[in-house]
Amino acid sequence: MIALGSDHGGFELKQAIMKHLDEKGVEYKDFGTYSTDSCDYPDYAKAACQAVTKGECEKAILICGTGIGISMAANKVKGIRAACCSDYFSAKYTRLHNDANALCMGGRVVGPGLACELVDVFLETEFEGGRHQKRIDKITAIENER
Asked: Catalytic: which of 64, 85, 104, 116?
């Protein structure tokens, strides 16, 4: 199960991603927003990311206007490693090397075709582990210092 969340700036792109996931048979839960009415991205980042950290969802896909704000909010949730991506290489390697569990995109930056490709590579790429695990452990240690 994939957690989805967006603000008004990401609503339309989220709708395209939902259609894509439906076509691929990928289950998801939509944590909002449900319209283009102005709203605050931290609310949706928190809800979707908490579903990931509680084990209700495997990963999150989050969208705001640029992808930056929602990634900042997502990364405040303990246990989340969110990456704002707008290219294939970054979306692949944030999973492969960083074990990211939240993909963030900008609805005003990435078109629906590319966004769906980024979702696919993000969901299909496994963490490589090995030498990268110690780096993830160091990120977790920083997080635990709070």
From this structure: 64
